[in-house]
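During the reporting period the student researcher (J.K.) took over the structure-prediction task from the postdoctoral fellow and processed the backlog of single-chain submissions. One of the processed entries is reproduced below for the supervisory committee.
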Amino acid sequence: MNFFPKVYADAVARLRVPSGFLIVVVFAWFSRPTAESLLWGVPVSVVGLALRAWAAGCLAKNQQLATGGPYRYTRNPLYVGTLLVAGRTGDRRAKRLAGRAVRSVFLFVYLPVIQNEEQHLRKIFPEYDAYAERVPALWPRMGPPLGGQAFRWSLYRKNQEYQAGAGFIIGLLYLLWSAR
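J.K. obtained the following structure tokens:
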């Protein structure tokens, strides 16, 4: 079922990366991190980053339907990882503001993008419908392994996921500097 008109989903797909930068700017501007907020937030963000890395290393875009690795548990592990990274560092005030921004961007940008991506995957992979029946879109569900592609460093590099790691390190350094 499509919730967003295709024209809208296509238009906001181009806003996905710029909206992420906007969230970072809002977060950085209002963030007043403390040792406690970093102690709780950084480990959750690292888990999100690791999930993104694992997913990127199992994703051969437009060549093979990703059903291995984290794709056994959720159809969109990159987005789940992004939510974990985005929602857990900083202080309460920054989290409230950034949280609203993350929720808004997720609702009005990422969900339409996910809808578009699923339509695309249905067109190029006839087995996608059966996969989508077994694996939830976002909230991970544990179940029997489906098989599929194992993690490969070459895919991780090809998908340029190292950029997320570099961005995280820069952001973490900023938060540590702000907390001093």
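The committee noted the following: The mean pLDDT is 83.
J.K. will present the remaining backlog at the next meeting.
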